[in-house]
Amino acid sequence: MSSSDDSPMARLPPNLVSVFTQALKSYQISNATFRVLCSLTHSSLSSAAPAVPPTLHPPLTPLKSLLVFDSSFNPPTLAHQRMALSALLDHGQSDAYSDKEHASRVLLLLAINNADKAPKPAAFPQRLAMMYIFAQDLLRSSTTELTQQDQQHRGGCEAVDIAVTTEPYFHAKAHAIAASEFYRDPEQVYLTGFDTLIRIFNPKYYAPGGMAASLEPFFARSRLRVTMRTDAEWGDAEAQRAYVAALREGELQRVGGRTEWVERIEMVEGRKEGEEVVSSTKVREAVRRRDWEALKRLVSEDVAGWIREEGLYAEEST
């Protein structure tokens, strides 16, 4: 890949993997359950010399909403980007009762103790580096998208933060974020796919009778923005809406939850009919096939460049 100063990849801090390796070591020694490692703002994009190590930019004023994107980012894809941009457009709106606009903020969260997935094939520092690139992509794309939507009087993306947690479950993550001093406890909006919604309400992840005790505090401070995942495994949009309707009609209470939680779930459209399925799995498969044209359709140009430069996913173990 070109090393020209005009290349977007040239805006990355040098030794980014080493920086995140050291940041992870410091975090693990601290025994903290949550830590923001760095923040990217629009001003950081225009900086000729990115900060080393990347810097923190806590919110200057209380946030209306914190958009929490909790994922394995293995790697971040164009589907991740669409989910985040859609949420920014919907949750950055001005207050209905005043002229005040509210800028939203995105938190990219990597759980380094995942309840379901082992840390492979990309190591955590490599994933954090790709999250950094993804944050740059998101800030640039949000500027374009939000400018085009100016007539709808929407706010913007104040910053994108990159953080890690040792908590494996959403309710524990939400508590850890709220307990930190970084955000001043805004409402947390979790960006998830439909498959994650299924897991959240699966009783196997809770002690007997423990779902209500775990999720009641979560839904008191958080909501779920669920992007429908229409495929052979999860069914069509109608089937997914029917699942949520069944939760509202008593199924959630039957498995140990509370029906009123359904009001804290926002269902949004995902992939349109006929559009290519985009997933991290498909990215890794494309790399193993050395299908670089397919890779371009699945991840951003800069993420694709990083994957190729670092030799990621070329020999994924199964």
UniProtKB/TrEMBL annotation:
It catalyses: beta-nicotinamide D-ribonucleotide + ATP + H(+) = diphosphate + NAD(+). It comes from the Eukaryota. Pathway: Cofactor biosynthesis; NAD(+) biosynthesis. GO terms for molecular function: ATP binding; ATP hydrolysis activity; nicotinamide-nucleotide adenylyltransferase activity. The keyword Zinc does not apply. GO terms for cellular component: cytoplasm; nucleus. Signal peptide: none annotated. One of its GO terms (biological process) is NAD+ biosynthetic process. InterPro entries: NadD/NMNAT (IPR005248), Rossmann-like_a/b/a_fold (IPR014729). Keywords: ATP-binding, NAD, Nucleotide-binding, Nucleotidyltransferase, Pyridine nucleotide biosynthesis, Transferase. This is Nicotinamide-nucleotide adenylyltransferase. It comes from Daldinia eschscholtzii.
